[in-house]
Amino acid sequence: MTALFALATSLLWGLADFGGGLLTRRTPALTVVVASQSTAVLVLGSIVVATGGFSEAGPLLWYAVAAGVVGPVAMLSFYKALALGPMGVVSPLGSLGVAVPVGVGLIIGERPGLLQFAGIAVAVAGIVLAGGPELRGAPVQRQAILLTLVAAFGFGAVMALISEASTTLTGLFLALFVQRVTNVTVGGAALYVSVKRGGRALPEDGGMRVIWSSLPALAFVGLADVAANGTYSIAAQHGPVTEAAVLANLYPVVTVIAALVLLKERLRVVQAAGAGLALVGTVLLASG
């Protein structure tokens, strides 16, 4: 069950990142974050009311609040790093956040077997290579590296926090709802400050019309992201956190494949090798 839900997480996150990346080509990143997460709030709120999830409120929800605060900071740091580039360095480095939940798993006493340790090493190497790291060319700005590491730590922290935010399915819906409300609050405040300082909230070409036409895509990104958090939480609660975290972080491979299939981007040799290593690591983890 752990492997199945963790792989579902990587699929959902990979598609959400792909969709979010396309949307930010025309729409400011902060607006994409706030709009996509707002759709998730509406859907989750309805589910929580229908399932009576508010009865699950308790101190564990503070983990969800913390995840909701950290998430937008990590996402915006990642987008800023991508803007500074090069993307071929930033993208694979962002997946190194897997070290946080894996570290948590080791701290709480998990001890993977030899095959699983090998699977972790091979899968992480594959994840990094799947991003197509640029080994030559212009030097990377120190600020881009720093922002990427902040984003990676934030993504990993969100994974660790949300897995601790509930113990039941209805409680998970409530935790995800609280996380998303916090996301929108923090992201909305950041967007307000950005506009006050002269930033844009709407696309330069098309304005609000572009936002309305993008609503289905925004909803997909928001719902895929929240569903990924949910499937990861289930995976981490029903099996080793180390295994769940590594398999869930295969999402860069999914993003690369989506770009290959849907945008007809050419797959570099290093990316193909990374995807292959990631698959080998998955088999080793599952067999361990």
Describe this structure in words.
This protein has helices spanning 2-23, 29-51, 61-84, 87-94, 99-107, 114-130, 142-162, 169-196, 208-213, 215-237, 241-248, 251-262, 269-287. The chain has 288 residues and is mainly alpha-helical. The chain has one domain (2-287). Helix 2 packs antiparallel against helix 8 (169-196), helix 3 (61-84) runs antiparallel to helix 7 and helix 6 runs antiparallel to helix 13 (269-287). The protein is globular, with a radius of gyration of 18 Å. The chain starts with a helix and ends with a helix. The mean pLDDT is 79. Keywords: Membrane, Transmembrane, Transmembrane helix. Residues 3-130, 144-285 form the EamA domain. It comes from Streptomyces lunaelactis. This is EamA domain-containing protein. InterPro entries: EamA_dom, EmrE-like.
